[in-house]
Amino acid sequence: MKATVLMRQPGRVQEIVGALRKGGGDRLQVISDFDMTLSRFAYNGKRCPSSYNILDNSKIISEECREELKALLHHYYPIEIDPHRTIKEKLPDMVEWDGYKTFFNTLSQNSVPLFIFSAGVGDILEEIMRQRKVFHPNIHIVSNYMEFDEDGFLKGFKGQLIHTYNKNSSVCENSGYFEQLQGKTNILLLGDSMGDLTMADGVPGVENILKIGFLNDKVEERRERYMDSYDIVLEKDETLDVVNGLLQHILPQRDWTEIQGS
């Protein structure tokens, strides 16, 4: 399926991209969701697994547990994507409830910080990136990390539960991460939900921010709202081509063939 690139205000996007290019890598940081943003929503029309789906599909998960997980998904996913319910109404429920190499390597080789803000499973995200050899030192992750008891059994998650609608500075205000990035006043934000729009809230000294939204599901129903909220909307895009193209434009010209293959 052919991807579609949409912009409500192309002139404004051009201005922001120009400012990001002028600032270059010295002023840039990237803040991104993971599931269905840096990972694919679908491939050749078939839905791809999220970090939670990897647990669902594991052979070590019992059939009883699998059925319970499926029931939870069917209950909570419609709540998460319901456009008629406010974020405040969804919060209680949420608490209960590829070009990837070029992207990662480009940011690493240009020393651009990548902050991954995920409501998924942090342990799985890290393992995926390690196996793909893209878990570089410039990456910082805030996500849900599993906690195990002395016998190695999963007993829950560490700290505050991160869900679609609390992805902002309130869950990482004590980390000091953004304070270490003084001078990184330009932000490229990547997300696939309305909740991802707040991921840069609380970042000090922001001068320019370009928000790119991946619209993967219920496209007709959500298109207008996404176009009102994101600067660039990518419909049914199974790649990171647009993002990589922007990075190539913003960052100093280098041997991009080398970056893609490294």
Automatic annotation (TrEMBL):
InterPro entries: HAD-like_sf, HAD_sf, Pyrimidine_nucleotidase_eu
Source organism superkingdom: Eukaryota
Gene Ontology terms, MF aspect: 5'-nucleotidase activity; magnesium ion binding; nucleotide binding
Keywords from the named record: Cytoplasm, Hydrolase, Magnesium, Metal-binding, Nucleotide metabolism, Nucleotide-binding
Signal sequence extent: none
Biological processes per GO annotation: nucleotide metabolic process
Matching SUPFAM superfamilies: HAD-like
Family: Belongs to the pyrimidine 5'-nucleotidase family.
Role description: Specifically hydrolyzes 7-methylguanosine monophosphate (m(7)GMP) to 7-methylguanosine and inorganic phosphate. The specific activity for m(7)GMP may protect cells against undesired salvage of m(7)GMP and its incorporation into nucleic acids. Also has weak activity for CMP. UMP and purine nucleotides are poor substrates.
Protein name, per record: 7-methylguanosine phosphate-specific 5'-nucleotidase isoform X1
Lineage, opening ranks: Eukaryota, Metazoa, Chordata, Craniata, Vertebrata
